[in-house]
Write a structure and sequence with these properties.
This protein is of the alpha+beta class and 207 residues long. The chain folds into two domains: 112 residues, Nucleic acid-binding proteins (OB fold (Dihydrolipoamide Acetyltransferase, E2P), Beta Barrel); 77 residues, Arc Repressor Mutant, subunit A (Orthogonal Bundle), CATH 1.10.10. It is 30% helix and 34% strand. The protein has a five-stranded mixed beta barrel with strand order 5-6-7-9-8. The protein has a three-stranded antiparallel sheet with strand order 2-3-4. Helix 3 runs antiparallel to helix 6, helix 4 crosses helix 5 and helix 4 crosses helix 6. The longest helix has 15 residues. It starts with 9 loop residues before the first strand and ends with a strand.
Length: 207
């Protein structure tokens, strides 16, 4: 984990940022988001970079889109200190919430590539998923398929069978499952912390 002092940054899921109430702040108070009992002006995220763009006359504006198991959000830097990360990287990010045209995003303070996947597993264990996220996903799947337990076991077995060490291919797991709601089941298992994204195209069972 990066060594900087980040104790003031709230460890958070992206869905808590997206679902929270935004306050723009003033000269004395920074912009904040309130979600349930949490109020925060700086966040600590772990996730996967799924998109990256560079803009501005001197390419000084870099925007990445980061995704965790609960959602995705843009994160930007507006100076020459570009984050040395690429699409597909798992990253550690410290940022400050902002809003423009009704869309929330983050100003990047720190963004570093994670080379040890164990940190994602640690985060999933130490930070409980928002209850509303888990309940909504479970209810959606149960409506679609009464044999949910059978299909969950089937998908986990397929992931194991196709995992050569770096995870199983997401599309291949869906294809081999031959289950209409395979994507929903995979998303639910990710949100429950039973499997996780190794990259945007690879998933792995948390042992």
């Amino acid at each position: 984990m990066p060594s900087q002092n980040t104790s003031h940054a709230e460890k958070i899921w992206i869905s808590e940022i997206l679902n929270g109430d935004y306050s723009s702040g003033d000269d004395k108070t920074p912009a904040q988001i309130t979600c349930g009992k949490k109020t925060f002006s700086k966040v600590n995220l772990l996730g996967v970079v799924i998109n990256k763009t560079v803009d501005g006359p001197q390419e000084e504006i870099q925007t990445i889109e980061i995704e965790d198991t609960t959602g995705k959000i843009p994160a930007r830097t507006f100076d020459s200190k570009k984050a040395q990360i690429e699409v597909g990287d798992c990253i550690f990010l410290i940022g400050r919430p902002r809003m423009y045209n009704q869309q929330k995003y983050l100003i990047i303070d720190i963004a570093k590539k994670i080379t040890q996947q164990e940190w994602i597993e640690v985060r999933q264990k130490e930070l409980p998923l928002p209850e509303i996220t888990k309940k909504e996903q479970i209810q959606e799947i149960q409506k679609e398929d009464e044999d949910i337990d059978t299909n969950i076991a089937k998908i986990i077995s397929i992931i194991h069978a196709n995992d050569t060490g770096m995870g199983a291919d997401y599309d291949l797991v869906i294809k081999q499952s031959n289950t209409t709601n395979a994507e929903n089941i995979i998303n639910m298992l990710i949100k429950k912390g039973e499997i996780f994204n190794v990259s945007p195209t690879k998933i792995k069972v948390l042992e």
